[in-house]
Give the backbone structure.
Amino acid sequence: MDKNPKKKKEKKEIIAKIYQQSFTSPTKSSGVSSKVFFFYLIVSIIAGFLAGFVQDLWFSDYNQIIVPTINTNETKEVLDLNFLLEEDDKVFNQALMQLRSQVVGFYKRRSKDNILDSLYLEKDFLGSGLAVTSDGWLMTHQSVVKEEDYVIITPDKEILEPVKTVIDPFSQTVLVKVLSQNLSPVRFADLDAIKPTDPLLVARYSMQNHGSDLTKTLIQKFAYHDQSQGSDFLLSTEQIDHYLKISSTLDAVYNGGFLLNEHMEVIGMLFDSGKEQIRLAVPSYYLNSTVNNFLESSEEVIRSFLGVRYVDLSEALGLSDKITEGQSKGAVLLGDSENDILAVIDKSPAAVAGLEAGDVILKVNNEDVDEKNSLTKLINDYTPGQELTLTISRAGEGQEIKVILGEL
């Protein structure tokens, strides 16, 4: 312990002064600083509020210009989409206007026992057809009219009677004559100019939709025929050998409808093949040849006759080299002995010219027989009586054979 009272007193006084300096109340100078701090704080808050108010008031237009620039691209996309839709509508409207003079509907004839019985209903609709000449000849498919007693109705709701009917057994199409001057003939397209990715229109008659109905589709296969068994590959120059197959599956109301390209030219005619959905169409070159062959006689459709059966090498797999003679395209003449089917029909133009079973026909008048041009298609490009030069391969040797087409 510190025994010196004086030193002890001095020590207490020093400690008291230290505590007094630590806890003393603010001086006048520190008070001024606090007031300045609070003043600036209040001024800052007011300034911030005024700045926001002025910005909203004076620069609101500026904000409206700057902020939406983030969404400028989105606005353009919407406008572009609307533009495309408008273009589609324009194309559809143009197509509908043109089809009003080209497409017709086939209906079962209604009885006229009373007024209401004479009204044609949707259930009476058989299928569609199109005008192919300017003097009233129409075309439809046999699956549309069958053996029905029918009438033809135009987009203007004119009911027409069939005056004359001509059947083409080759293409299974039917030509029907009506007395009307308000129909315009269609144009047939060149299928060589069509690509699988080209969008096409499917047109059919529709009484409830201003006389016609349109939808879009694509070609899935240009040369389709059943290939479920080996005999399906055996084709004939006297029967239609292939069809167009579309990507869409359509209802029965599209029977007799037709495919159109962007130039409103006919690509093919749809028909009921016996399946649940309609997907097959007769190609335009067979439709065109039906009309042209008919116009030459004005009485019937005359087809060329060669008289052979064949397998198209461009689509056949598994045949031995002995049969194909090393060829990957062409038509090898084959028959079916089990079913008494000859490769070369007796006394046919082919037999007269000397064609034999096993011959591979490579060219018809210098046109290749391939996946684009089947032998049947090439033969049907010519009329009866014309002489053709066939380039063939026989036992590995090439030669040319002259043949004069007959009449089917």
Summary: The longest strand covers residues 243-250. The chain is about 30% helix and 25% strand. The CA atoms of residues 293 and 362 lie 26 Å apart. The domain at 303-408 is CATH 2.30.42.10 (Pdz3 Domain).
